[in-house]
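re: that complex we talked abt at group meeting.

here r the seqs, copy pasted straight from the sheet so there may be weird spacing, ignore it
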Amino acid sequence: MSHDHALEEDLTLTPKFDANGLVTAVVTDVANGDVLMVAHMNDEALRKTIETGDAWYYSRSRKALWRKGESSGKTQRVAEMRMDCDQDAIWIRVEQIGGAACHTGRRSCFYRAITKGDDGAAKVAFVDAEKVFDPAAVYK
Amino acid sequence: MSHDHALEEDLTLTPKFDANGLVTAVVTDVANGDVLMVAHMNDEALRKTIETGDAWYYSRSRKALWRKGESSGKTQRVAEMRMDCDQDAIWIRVEQIGGAACHTGRRSCFYRAITKGDDGAAKVAFVDAEKVFDPAAVYK
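got the structure back, here u go
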């Protein structure tokens, strides 16, 4: 395996942005450790998140910088940020304002479990899929 | 925002692989909820993980399917798998065999915290960065 020792052991922030200028952001709930969502950050989103303590991302579909919760009010206060060994992923522990991170109205975007069915094929089931808010009422 | 209601509400596994045929895998430690690593899965890695209960990934640098721990012995037993709303990310809760997921020898790949320094710029510090194993002894 080829690894970059400097990237791994340095105490400088030198994010390895991909071809689209993005790193992966994994967002967990500081209250219980659950993964709330996976998003992306460009250089500006990362900088604004560090500066303000609110989570900013870059929307690949809308091609725009985006403060989480700017339309829904479900903002995220950053409790801790960490970067990974090769500096292409960021782990953000947040206080999720309004109790729901997912645009579908759920607490977490990960509301479906994958298991192996009796026939050996993948089986999907809702877990923790209750809606905290009504998306139709929140996103006008 | 444009969202795909079927993708979000269906109980079928229809992963939205990216241009390289990959989805993002976020791996957390079932023992304490910490994020251990971020990796990628192609269709075969996902299928083998569901079938075997061991974590398989696709290495972008080596362009190869890879059973986590196949060279280090630090395999991952899957406790739970979940998919996200738009089916381009998978959350995997694992029992980390050997107590370390990172190739640098640490428990987690996220062993550096990012904070805002007194001068307003980003500051990086080691956290939970103790090495559980010596990479030089494990990867020959």
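couple things i noticed - The two ends of chain A are 49 Å apart (CA to CA). Residues 43-52 of chain A form the longest helix (10 residues).
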